Amino acid sequence: MARWPLPRPRRGPGPAMTGRAHSLVRSGTDGALDVLHPVITLVRGLGRLVVLAVRWWSRTPKERRGPVLFLLGVGVLVVALMPWGPAFAVVLVVGAAAWQGREGSGVGADPSEEESKRLQAVYEALVPLFALQDDPNPQPLFAHDGSWERAFEEIEFTDDGRIGRLLLRYPAHFRDSDAKLRFLVERLLGAKSGRDREYRFVWDEERNELEMTVPEPLPEGIRAQRFVTGPGEVVLGFTDADSVHRRVPVTDAGQARDVPPVVWRTGARATESHLLVVGAPGAGSTTLLRSVVLQALEHGDVLVVDGSGSGEYACLAGRAGVLAVETSLTGAVACAEWAVHETERRLSVASRARQAGNLVPDDARRPLWIVLDRPAALSHLARTEGRRDPQELLQVPLRHGRAANVTVVVAEHFECADELNRAVRSYCRARVVLGTASPEEAWSVLGVDAVSPPGPLTPPGRGFARLGAGPVLRLQVPATPDPLDDAANEGERRAVLRLLPPLASGRTTGGTSVRTREPDMPVPPEPSPQQGSHPTVPTASVPEKSVTGTAAASAAAAPVAVSEQQAGAQAT
Ligand SMILES: Nc1ncnc2c1ncn2[C@@H]1O[C@H](COP(=O)(O)OP(=O)(O)OP(=O)(O)O)[C@@H](O)[C@H]1O
């Protein structure tokens, strides 16, 4: 990547300087520059080496820094002890600095004519957004007859001659707090720099500077698998290496590698106890929920309400730990009522146990997950039929779920996001946006003014995540298709099938509206040794006992009205 730093404003000679004096000064400066040229090259090269080293260090994950420092120390010691070692090292560094510092290369080259044209095109496109009509400034940063050198502070080009990084100064009158204006600038810069890439924009409102960078591509196509996480932790997807310090080992295309995850912590100590996913249609929200459910089933019980009624959770029906998979309003209301009673039961059991100085019993501690995909359709039905709205009922688990170890996950499309009630909006503090979102849509979910648009070529499962008031992270959801979907990738379907818990013998799921047929495909082979090296939850640990225990305990407190017929009978 070539970089062109800090153009200095060109100034004309002072009025007092005569032509002769000017030429004398210039020839003297040229002579001095010729003599000092090797030194300047070396100093420039050393500077660039330092910049490269600092960037590399900032990209190195924290857990690797210790071993890297150790190896560096050993290297320095070996070189110092070797005969001619220090001299050899000095020659090496000087050589590298000379190479990096030479003109027209490295991170400090002047842009070529072609690159200048590109920059001028970007500059001219920005003029209508940044220029002020009747600007009193004689040399404004952006003007129709202006040049890019006025406003572009730092530029880096990729090897194929495209803009890889751009730092520009914008005029003070530009309303940089206006999300719409920011979005216009970002969209324009993205379009002028190439629509086929993603961009990251950082607005420095104190300095009136905007930095555009092209982030490394996110890890795509990683299949669903057991992720190495702690109890209560869920991998929502993968993000940029420099955005998080953590890495999780995954198997990708048969190879083991470490990737930077977006980890969402749930449970009693978590501050973002519930998750809201809002996405464009087909952007992958059901896929994300399926991935969350598969991870949740490792340690807890799950109750699924599929408001779209598309049967995309049918693979879960009858599995150990899956309490119900409901698609109808009656079933959804019954599930929500049960969740309310169960939350209250857990709270009172925990409170009694604590008052008696005992441990909270397992059946009040085992994580319970309530997953609602597209609840807006059900809320609409409930209104038209004069029934109770499942979202309203969920206020109790949303409010008190943290203390009762009940986690709520809700997914909705942007066009129906208005139907999400206040409790869902305020208690779901872990947020995900999937697919292309307008600035208003992104703001309404993530609570920040501007998010760079992922662009029209956004792959499914791509978006942004924000946990509480944390930073906005780019997100790629692991490929977790419906294993009953014949059109899905065969390998990805098999990966999901391998993660499904065994069928719960002697239990009914209650949900009658879901397909309960077994996938008519052969049982997938055992995971590869690499996969086997990741800690997996043995099937025996999916506690049949605790599932029935939960149901039994709940039955004492409130009838588990998860069967559509039962609930229908109650309703009538
Ligand atoms: N992370 C991903 N990796 C690969 N493919 C994905 C990913 N996420 C989604 N897909 C694919 O995109 C398609 C749509 O996904 P999904 O059904 O999850 O989206 P959705 O937002 O729930 O859509 P809708 O609600 O409109 O049905 C599916 O074919 C799915 O396999």
UniProtKB/TrEMBL annotation:
FtsK domain residues: 259-443
Entry's transmembrane regions: 69-99
Chain residues that bind ATP: 279-286
CDD domains: RecA-like_superfamily
Biased composition (Low complexity): 499-514, 551-572
Region span, Disordered: 1-20, 499-572
Keyword terms: ATP-binding, Membrane, Nucleotide-binding, Transmembrane, Transmembrane helix
Polar residues bias locations: 530-539
Statement: the UniProt record of this protein carries the keyword Nucleotide-binding: yes
Record protein name field: Membrane protein
